[in-house]
Amino acid sequence: MAEEKKEVKSIDPATVEMIEKAASDGARVVFERAATMKPCPIGSEGSCCSMCSMGPCRVPLPKGKEETPEEKRKRVGVCGATPETIAARNFLRKTAAGAAAHSDHGRKVTEAFLLAAKGEAKGFQIKDEQKLLQVALDLGVEIGDRSNEEIAIDIGEMAYKDFGRQEGEILFGRRAPLKRQELWHKQGVYPRGVDREVVEAMHRTHMGVDQDYKSLLQQAARTSLADGWGGSMIATELQDIMFGTPSPVLSQINLGVLKEDEVNLIIHGHEPQLAEMLAVVTQDPEMIEYAKSKGAKGINLAGMCCTANEILMRHGVPIAGNFLQQELAIVTGALEAMVVDVQCIMQGIADIAKCFHTKIITTDPRAFIEGTTHIEFDERKAVDTARAIVKAAIDNFPNRGKNVRIPDVRSDLIAGFSHETINYLLGGLFLSSYRPLNDNIINGRIRGVAGVVGCNNVRVTHDDVHVTMVKELIKNDVLVLQTGCSAMACAKAGLMVPEAAAEFAGEGLAEVCQAVGIPPVLHLGSCVDNARILIAATAMVKDGGLGDDISDLPAAGAAPEWMSEKAISIGEYFVASGVFTVFGAAWPTLGNKEVTDFLFKDTEDLYGGMWAFEPDPIKAAQMMIAHIDKKRKALGIDKARERVLYDMAMRRELE
Prior knowledge:
Elements: H1 13-25, H2 30-36, H3 41-44, E1 48-49, E2 57-58, H4 69-74, H5 83-117, H6 129-139, H7 148-163, H8 178-187, H9 194-204, H10 213-243, E3 249-253, E4 263-268, H11 272-281, H12 285-293, E5 299-304, H13 305-315, E6 319-321, H14 326-331, E7 337-340, H15 348-353, E8 359-362, E9 373-374, H16 382-396, E10 411-415, H17 419-427, H18 435-442, E11 448-452, H19 464-475, E12 478-483, H20 484-492, H21 499-504, H22 507-516, E13 521-525, H23 530-543, E14 555-559, H24 565-576, E15 580-583, H25 593-607, E16 611-613, H26 617-635, H27 648-654
Parallel strand pairs: 4-5, 4-7, 5-6, 7-8, 8-9, 11-12, 11-14, 12-13, 14-15, 15-16
Antiparallel strand pairs: 1-2, 3-10
Helix pairs in contact: 5-7, 5-9, 5-10, 5-24, 6-7, 6-10, 7-10, 9-10, 10-23, 10-24, 11-13, 11-16, 19-20, 19-26
C-alpha cells in the first residue's frame, strides 16, 4: 500500500516546529482550522449573491457540460441579476473594502500628523524636513519663511479634506505621468476622494442599482485608484515626514528573535503611531529597570505583519513573523503580550492565548476582540499609553510557565528601501536619479522590474509561492520590489541581503547589485507602502528612455499568496495604473467567463495593464517575464548591445 503523502504546510522550519508544538499542546491554530474548514466553491468563484434577503442566490457555471442559451437565461438570481452582474458586484465590493481599510489607516495617520504639527501630540514631531518641503511643493503649499509646523498644518488639512473630496481629483493623482492622467480622464475613472468612491461603490452594488458588469468594474478601477494614489499614498508620505523616511537598516526576522530571558512584546497590526512610541518606551532605562525587578534581563520588542515593517524600517526592530505566524508566536510560550490594532489580526489569537500566559491587548477604538484586554491608544497621550502597555507586559513576565520553546531560526535582512533611498543609492547625493536603473534596463543587465507583494494564504504552502516566484524572477535578471508579508517570506529565505545577488540572481542583475551594494530583492515597507512602487515607476518614466507612461515600462506585479480584500484593491490600482498583475492562490471571478475575460483581456485595451491568475509560481513568474520581454521589444531594447569604448575619432564621426 502506497504511503500517504504528508501535506507540507510551510517551507519555514520555525513555522513547522511551532505547528507541531501547537498540536502537542492542544492549541488549535489556523493550519488545523483550515484542514477542517474548506472554502465554499460557489462563493470563492464569485457566483453567490447575498445583497438582499431574498437570497443568497447561487449561480455557478454547470460543470462538465455545454450550457445552452436558454439554460444561461434561466441561471439568474431571484431579482433577475445575471451571473456577470453578481460576479462584478462581488469584485467591486472587495475592492471597496480593501480601499476603505487602507484609506482609514491613512486618515488615522493624517489625524496624528495634524496633532503633531499643532504640538498636541507629545512624542510626535516633524522628523524629515526635506520630505515635508517636497510634499509642500507637490501640493502647492506656500513655504516662504514659514515654520515647519505651519507648513505641516496646511499639508495635513489638505490631505484630510482629500479623503472626502466630493468633486475634482485627488491631490496626489497629479504625480502620475501626464499620459496616465489623460487616460484616467478618458475612461472616466480619475478618482475624487476615497470616501466618495467607496460610498458610491457600496451604493452601486446595492440591490437594484448598477446592473452592467462593465460599469461596475470601471467603478472598481476608480475606487482602487483613490486608494493607491490617494489614501495609501497620503499615509506613506505623512508617516515618512512624521517618523522619518526609511533608509537601509540591518535586522533579523523569524520567531527566533524572541528571547528566553527577556520580556517579549510583539506589536501586530498596521497603525505605526503606537509602534513608534513602543520603540521608544521599551528603551527607557526606567522601564528596563522595572523589567529587571520582575526577574527579566530586559525588554525585547518585535513586530508582526505590517506594523513590523514600519518599525523595522525606521528603528531596526526585528520581525517575529508574517501573517500565518501570529498564533505561533504565542505557542512559543515565551510571549508576554501581543499588542494589536487593526487589519489582519486573527480572532484565534485570543483562544490560543488561553493555552499560555500571553496577554492580548487591543488598542484601537475600531477593533475589539472578546476576552482580551483593551488599552486604548490616544495620540495626545501617546507616551503614557505606551508605558501602560509595556508595564502590563512586564507584569506578566512572572506568569510565564515552563512550556517554552523558541525556535532557533532567524535570518538577517536589510530593509528600508524607500523611493528616496533608491534614488540616492543609484545616483548619489548630488546626482540622485533613476537614470542608472533605466540605463541598466536599456542595456539589458536588468531585464525589468517586478513588484511582488501581498499576504500569506493558508490554502497554499506558507511562504513557498512567494519565495519560489521571486527566485525565478531574480534568476532571470528581474529586480524585485516587495512589501508586506511577501517581503517577510523572502527575507526569511535569505533573499534580502547583498550576498543573495551572487547566489540567486542572474549575471546581469548580480553585477548591478554588487556594484551598488544592494540585495536583488528590495524591502519597501508595509501594504500601504505599495504607493512607493507607484512613485518609483513614475520616476522611471520621468527619467526617460522607457516610454512615456507606466504601461510602457518592462515591469509587472504579483500577489502570489494574497488573502485579504486589501490585496484586490492594490492589484486593481496597479492594473488601472498600467501594470500587468498576476494573482495566485485563488481568483474571485472564475465562476463567470465574461467578467474574467474583461479583467484578463479587455482591461489592457482600457488601461494598458491587466489581470492574470496563475497558482503555479514558476508559471506565474514566466508570465511576468514574457510580459517584460514584450515591453522591451516594444521599446526596441530587446536586442543585446555591444559595449563600445569610443575614441576621439569615433566621437567626431558621431558629430
